[in-house]
Amino acid sequence: MAIRVSRFAGEFAQLAEWTGESERELRDDKDYHSPSREHWLAWDGDQLVGALHPWRSPDGRHRLYFDRCRADSYGALAAVVAGECYTHADITDAQVLAELSAAGFAEVRREHEYLVPVAQVHAPVPGGLRLVTADKTELEPLMMLDCAIRADIPGSEGWEPDPVWFREETYDSPFFDPQTYLVAIDGDDYIGLVRIWRALPGRELQRLGCVGVLAGYRRRGLARALIAAAFMPLVRRAVTHVNAEVDASNDASNALFAGLGAAVVGGTIELRRS
Q: Which of 32, 74, 112, 201 is most buried (most C-beta within 10 Å)?
């Protein structure tokens, strides 16, 4: 029987049973109630076999987030989205990669997944600069710093400022921890940041989502100092490891994490369908 795809219409019970998430968590997820977000389900008869959550990100790219999916549902789900789009897959999942390739996706870049040990790191803040926790920052300059740093991150080029989205995904996010989201400041200028998010539901580890410094402040040890400061609250909480993703071609960032004793434990492939 061919896979049938339908727009999500409140099938929270079936989705919870298929994904393993609680029905209550799914119902409380604001994305399922946003008129700007679509959700699609794949069915084999009456059995749910996959879910897709497309998203138009602030860089203009159409990104496809596949939830738990049976391999043969990827192509049918991707077909509901027209035009160019991007997605990610585990580098070791040959079956999913084959299904996405058959659906017209091709590799554009790779990321290493690191397991990063949390420890006290001796890395003083360069002279004349200071660090503040993100709850002490102003939205607009932090948002503009975020966009400037993303411009140098492969796969995030072209990110446009969106104050409503940025507030929701930063200050108002349930995964926002101001003690581990730090901003480097030179006078009144925001010039670098590090953010470590609280663990996502079902995930054991917190995620070091980004560390970045504006071009004029690099090669002074500021990125390492930001990570050292963000690690201190985690050391006090007896957190032993976080994970992080780094583009395979980003030599400076890979060297930074190697210097922290991080180990590559996996990876992802970003794919694009034209």
A: 74
Averaged pLDDT, 254-260: 94
- Helix ranges (DSSP H) in the chain: 12-19, 23-28, 74-78, 94-102, 139-150, 163-169, 222-236, 251-259
Whole-prediction pTM value?
0.85
pLDDT attached to residue 1: 64
pLDDT per position as a tens digit, 17-41: 999 989 998 998 888 988 888 999 9
Whole-number Å distance between alpha carbons of 85 and 105:
9
> Nearest 5 degrees, angle CA 232-CA 237-CA 242?
70
Tokens of 227: 């990570």
CATH of domain 115-273: 3.40.630.30
pLDDT at 126 over 90: yes
Superfamily of chain region 4-104: Gcn5-related N-acetyltransferase (GNAT) (3.40.630.30)
Neighbours of 219 (CB within 10 A): 9
For residues 174 and 75, what is the distance between their CA atoms, to the nearest angstrom?
A: 33
- By three-state DSSP, how is residue 2 classified? coil
Q: Which residue has the tokens 């079902």?
A: 202
